[in-house]
Amino acid sequence: MRDQTGNVLESSVPKVLITRRWPLAVEAELQRRYELTIRNSALSVAEWHSALKEYDAICPCVIDKISADMLKVISPRTRLFANFGVGYNHIDLVAAAARGISVTNTPDVLTHATADLAMTIMLMLARRAGEGERQLRSRQWHGWYPTHLMGTQVTGATLGIIGMGRIGMAMAQKAHDGFGMKILYHNRKPVNESVVYAMKAEYCADMQDLLQRSDFVALHCPGGKNNRHLINAEALAQMKPGAFLINTARGDVVDEDALVTALQKGQIAGAGLDVFEREPEVAAALLAMENVVLLPHLGSATTATREAMGWRVLSNLDAFFKNEPLPDRVV
Ligand code: 8YV
User: Partner of 51 at 20 to 30 A CA spacing, among 28, 126, 183, 193?
Assistant: First the structure.
């Protein structure tokens, strides 16, 4: 739009940047409501700085590491980071708040998709599904025999959940109701929810207690500095030799080098990882191990869930630009 003298006028439609392609239906709706820019590759520090001067809201995702350096812009135009995802350990919240930028996330909508994936990994690990498929596809399967790829029974085994939040609870419930598993959990404090009582989940104030008693240990706590390397060499040494570790939370919760050593020494039976410490890099040693399930951060990757995440971001953007309370405010 131009004024009477022909100067270009700033549009009153908020300018929004999404840093990657999103499900098409959500992109289309964003386009209808906002002046949308879709970026599909990583932004350099300089590009972050100019984006902060140009857009009213930026919608990052887990691969956009928004450090204090990225935010070193005086009076940014950006007032909101509407994150596409529930985890926000990739955003320096203190630096964002110091610049007057609010942050929102997308809780609830990815709970079941992520818990389903944790179940998938548990079953794959226990029943050596990846190993079997690799064997068959490489034409190394020469027929049935009684001791072929014998695995571990999931039904009736003990599952230890570290981080009994939404996703931890959903996995516990699926494991308990569907597979008759005994549930142990470690959390900052006991969870006062009827579903937790209904499945008779046992609270382990001491994580060591859970590690020593679980056949499967599933991580569902947030990433970031408070939980960095929560699962280190000492923790791994507490696990049963026949136990499996499952991580669909954040890569930095596990000391990946210590995990490799524990697997090499046979201290634990295997590990299933959907997230990695140096994502998308994966330790070469892990790639070579048959008793390890490796997935490329698929936790929330269903069509319905990724769309729901997009709609959830949209509702935060809409609330923000209408000056309404943010449904999923983090800071
Ligand atoms: C998302 C996730 O796909 O939401 C999260 O925290 O880990 C994933 O399931 C990712 O964060 C997208 O930004």
Answer: 28
Decide if 297 is catalytic.
yes
Residue 52, both tokens:
């902060």
Query: pLDDT by residue (tens digit) across 73-117?
Result: 999 999 999 999 999 999 999 999 999 999 999 999 999 999 999
- Give strand pairing partners of 66: 91
Q: Within a 13 Å sphere around the CA of 314, how many CA atoms are in the beta-carbon half?
A: 19
Residues 29 and 173 placed together within one structural domain of the fold:
no
User: Is the residue at 1 inside a domain?
Assistant: no
With 50 as the cut, is the pLDDT of residue 1 above it?
Answer: no
* Separate counts of helices (H) and strands (E) for the chain: 12, 12
pTM of the complete model: 0.95
Which residue, 52, 59, 109, is CA-closest to 86? 109
CATH number at residue 204: 3.40.50.720
Distance CA 256, CA 111 (A): 25
Compute the distance from residue 243 Cα to the ligand 1 centre, in Å. Answer: 27
Active site residue 279: yes
- Which protein residue has the closest C-alpha to ligand 1 atom 1? 85
Give the three-class secondary structure for 118. Answer: helix
Decide: 87 in ligand 1 pocket, CB within 6 A: yes
Is residue 270 lining ligand 1, measured as CB closer than 6 Å? Answer: no
On the question of pLDDT at 7 being above 60, the answer is no
Q: Which atom of ligand 1 is nearest to the CA of 62?
A: 13
Q: What is the DSSP letter of 89?
A: T
**Whole-angstrom Cα Rg for the chain:** 23
Parent domain of 279: 111-141+149-294
Smallest CA-to-CA distance from 32 within 323, 307, 326, 318 is with 318
Catalytic, 134? Answer no
